[in-house]
Amino acid sequence: MANTMIIRNPDGSPKKEFKSFVLDTNVFIHRPDALLSFKDNEIIIPLWVLEELDKLKSGGEERARNARQAIRQIDNLGKKGRLSEGVYLQEINSILRIAMAFDASGSLDLDMSRMDNKIILSALKLKREGRNVFFVSKDINARVKALALGLTAVDYEKQKVNIDSLYTGFLEVEAPVETRQSLETNGQVAFDRELPANQFVQVNTPKEKGFVLTRYNAEEKSLWTVQPQPQPISGIRALNLKQQLAFDLLLDPKIQLVTLVGKAGTGKTLLAIAAALSQTLESRLYSRILVSRPVIPMGKDIGFLPGNKDEKMSNWMQPLFDNLDFLISQAHSQSIKSADQLIKAKVIEIEALSFIRGRSLPNQYIIIDEAQNLSPHEIKTVVSRAGKDTKVVLTGDPFQIDNPYLDSSSNGLTYLVEAFKGQPLYGHIFLDKSERSELAELAAELL
Asked: What's the number of CA atoms in the CB half-sphere (13 Å) around residue 361?
């Protein structure tokens, strides 16, 4: 082994004796990141474990999600070296290796009834003929198997973004006292740094407390002060800085497309619905609200649901109804007493995404919840339905994906964020503070 692949003792000396842990498939099903538990040792994953994970990865149940997450982690770690020779994992001082599968005669043993394996072996044959071969696949598990066999395996990168550097819509800068005074007096100031349109900038001044929240105007190359909402929006107020910025985008009719990204409990859906009700019922900027979300179950699918379209959709839309009922209770409206009343009055329309293709939707406030479960093509289909004077709001958490064919980097929500970044009619903010409850925040951090 090279020096970089030597397992070392705490004092830095080479560890002469270490254990080799061969992991079974069910370990990954129980805990997808299980291999990170075997510090200071060698971790061996038999090729047949990848075969089993491949068979288990499809579906929406917990077992399938864990299989997909385990495959993604092995794929990410495998990029640090060659899985067939061993990859040194510095963070846990261990070596990760994929063990080949051989039959009794010593020949490579793969399930040749699986088409993926036949394709991989075709690529391997070309490599052995002396060609510079790249195996290109959207199937992570197929890539990992190819890497284990010594092939160069790569993803098809088109329509994929780097989730670690995803645009947040927010920036902090330090500026002279004169800049802050100009913002507080005039509400705007020239800014010589080029930023994406509608990016929020928190202007700090050295040795002074407080800051000024601004939004970048790309056309005028200036910062404009973000004003807090003087009155509650549909009975609620922003509970933190990022929620205030979200309301600034949601309530601005010039911003026709908004994305709110963040973990569970940050208020994405609640803020979107509150802004929609305010601008539909009070200011009358929009004729109605259309809400939808992908029909993808968490856990085992319960099967077909009885009733007409609205009755079927009501089960999937219950999280939206929960938010509506909360807002109605906070607004203390005498004229509106329930979400059902809003639907019957056609103020709110519940639509299945399956039926949105081909529609033209003018003068509406469209909210697509859980948009991280949509592909880039599906996102394009939804946003392109927007007619004149329509606003589209997409909310979601790219780290909570139930769609078996998408991940945090390839889903439609993150793709749209990067594609629309800098467009004058688009605004985005990443919400990072949970406001649901202290328990929910703790669960998100610890579990």
From this structure: 25
Give the integer Cα–Cα distance in Å for 413 and 403: 13
| Predicted local confidence at residue 106, as pLDDT | 65
CA 404/CA 52 separation, integer angstroms:
16
Contact in structure between 425 and 399 (CB atoms under 8 Å) = no
In the chain, what are the domain boundaries?
3-154, 234-446
CA distance 197 to 195: 6
**Nearest of 11, 40, 45 to residue 25 by alpha carbon:** 45
Cα end-to-end span (Å), the chain: 36
Strand order in the sheet with 222-225: 170-174, 200-204, 211-217, 222-225, 188-190
Q: Residues near 311 by Cβ (< 8 Å), separated by ≥ 6?
A: 305
Q: What is the model's pLDDT at position 317? A: 67
Q: At a CB cut-off of 8 Å and minimum separation 6, what does 35 contact?
A: 23, 28, 43, 45, 73, 74, 77, 96
Cα 83–Cα 88–Cα 92 angle in degrees, nearest 5: 125
Provide the Cα torsion 296, 297, 299, 302; round to 10°. -130
Give 331-351 pLDDT, tens digit per residue: 766 556 677 888 888 888 888
Q: Residue for token digits 């330090």?
A: 174
What pLDDT score was predicted for residue 253? 95
For 226, residues 6+ apart whose C-beta sits below 8 A from its C-beta are: 200, 213, 214, 215, 244, 245, 248
Q: How many CB atoms lie within 10 A of CB 144?
A: 25
Question: Could you tell me how many helices (H) and strands (E) the chain has, helices first?
Answer: 14, 17
CATH code for 3-154?
Answer: 3.40.50
Q: How far is CA 326 from the centre of its chain?
A: 26
CATH 3.40.50.300 fits 234-446, yes or no: yes
Digit-coded pLDDT (tens) for 90-111: 889 999 999 887 666 666 777 7
Burial of 380 (0-12, 13-18, 19+ CB in 10 A): middle
User: What pTM was estimated for this model as a whole?
Assistant: 0.76
Tokens 């100031």: give the residue: 189
The structure tokens listed for 233 are: 């929006």
Low-confidence ranges of the chain (pLDDT < 50): 1-3, 297-302, 305
How many whole angstroms from its chain centre is CA 110?
Answer: 34
